[in-house]
Amino acid sequence: MRIAILSRNPNLYSTRRLKEAGEAMGHTVDIIDTLHCYMDITSSKPTLRYDGKELPMYDAVIPRIGASVTFYGTAVARQFEMMGTFNINESVAISRSRDKLRSLQLLSRKGIGLPRTGFANKPDNIKDLIKNVGGAPVVIKLLEGTQGIGVVLADTAKAAEAIIEAFMGLKANILVQEFVKEAGGADIRCLVVGGKVVAAMKRQGAEGEFRSNLHRGGSAEVVKLSKEERETAVNAAKIMGLNLCGVDLLRSQNGPMVMEVNSSPGLEGIETATGKDVASMVFQFLEKNAKPHKNKTRGKG
Length: 301
Prior knowledge:
Number of helices: 9
Largest sheet: 5 strands, antiparallel
Helix content: 25-40%
Strand order of the largest sheet: 14-13-12-15-16
């Protein structure tokens, strides 16, 4: 097969590993800088151009679209879908996953376990917003934040009010969530490929740090999932419409709670922690499923 990876940096671990794994399995793998693609929108035959030439037809595309280029990246992914290329994560599903509020609403509607969450634009009663998620301590998140950036733990109601007011003053969209103390600063990253959890790791925050992101000094180790945790991760991926994703869970006294569903999960941490060749599993899925015009939305989403 001929496969395109949409990535702005060919030297990133995940991009490099995917290319290596695909080529080792006999496929032709091209890395394409998402922002350097340009589209012929007016043509009756949808096309994509790159470096002065029309791109060839690909059997499949793997979008590795960073949060900062979501708008343009999903437009490029949609153009591939309109051309009939199989997209492992469709553009509409990526857009869904990048909107934290929309994601939580979709998961909530289907009964997935979630931390109690409040969202407001200009709450007249900030005290009631905090009280409604269970009171302090609470976690306050910027809606557009990634890798733990824009996530603050407020230990007291007074601190929470001050932080919310500050974010509101900056006209930032925020979520206010209950703090799941029993998680102990740890979460579980489940890597889902084609409706199966193929690898899982427990991420533990650095000492004194409630955020477990590896980018923030957290550590990772292999973890054994319960049946309920595995089912929760698979169902979350299905609800979001993602064939490849990372589902982040918290272990709470009320069962697994989904924190986030990531449509461009990094492979370095989970491959290192588990010793599993996740990159090859992605291509195994594509070999079985990549057929022309097989995307559900066909670029209409």
